[in-house]
Specification:
With 369 residues, the chain is an alpha/beta fold. It is built from twelve helices and 20 strands.
Amino acid sequence: MNTPTIDVETLRTWLEQRQPVTVLDVRAMQDRAEWSIPGSLHVDAYAALKANDPRALGNVKLPDHQPVVTVCGAGKVSITAAEQLRARGFQTFSLAGGMKAWSLAWNQALLALPGADVQIIQVRRTGKGCLSYLIGTKGAAAVIDAALAPAVYLQLAHAHGWTIRSVLDTHVHADHLSRARQLAEQSGATLYLPTQQRVTYPFTPIAEGDSITIGGVPLVALYTPGHTLESICYLLKDQVLFTGDTLFLAGVGRPDLDASPAAARQRAHLLYHSLQRLLMLPPQTLVLPGHTRAPVAFDGVAVTALLVAVREAVGLLGETEETFVESLLRRIPPTPPNHQRIVFLNETGAPFAEDPTELEAGANRCAVA
């Protein structure tokens, strides 16, 4: 039987356009817990399907009269699932490449900055939870923490009548490949990276207090070491804070990636002081983080919160320095897969033969809650 497949872009478009579709995740529960497609249904049938058990999906109840897309880790076992459902009369497709391919799926949310002619598009890698930002006004735009193919940002900018003039990263990433260099090259924009000695390809350094303008609107760098030694947050028009991996809506950045235990402890102390500095900003400052742990729904609602709400939500922010450090180091999650290889590629800009979906597979693990 030749089971039809569907590619990630088609499924992404269906979800974005709210077309009726049932996404059925057939992976094991522990894999589902790591990351999933927003709104998908789940049945723990992976082992039975892999064993070609014809009863694996026999008790699954699905909506009638709409297509079903079956999903597994790499797009193989989901074919068996699709075949079983097609035998029951469902219009079924298997997601080509599975969740590994889905790691590049994205959606967007638009924010308008009150009192200013500035728009912010939050560009979300829905599976990995990577959040990047396109900021535009008066025909000019900047991109922060590009985590998708340059074409995504170029197309979004073109649709809004913007030209990308500046491309910035908040730090050297360890959980995903930065696309900042490629985006800067393809757009002709200036590439800004935090001042450091890690990255070996050309860039314009940006440090504490430096400011760039986007159509006349200032974007100011705040040095916030901790997650990495070079980490920077960006403050837009004294109203919006792009926190990278320093501060999340429900946690803080981990200090241990690519660091010895002693260095991780040192960075945890630095992170404490960086966070205390951010907490001195006005409580109505809008926080736009670099990641979220949950799959990002196709709802157009930005992942954001006011600083006062983040302070209340993240218990670590109210601790003393010593308690913060000890609690943070006790709660470190498992390291992201392939993080050393990803760091090497982000530092050197070296060409790579690997499939990026293989390198970046799995949920992000940059936060400590």
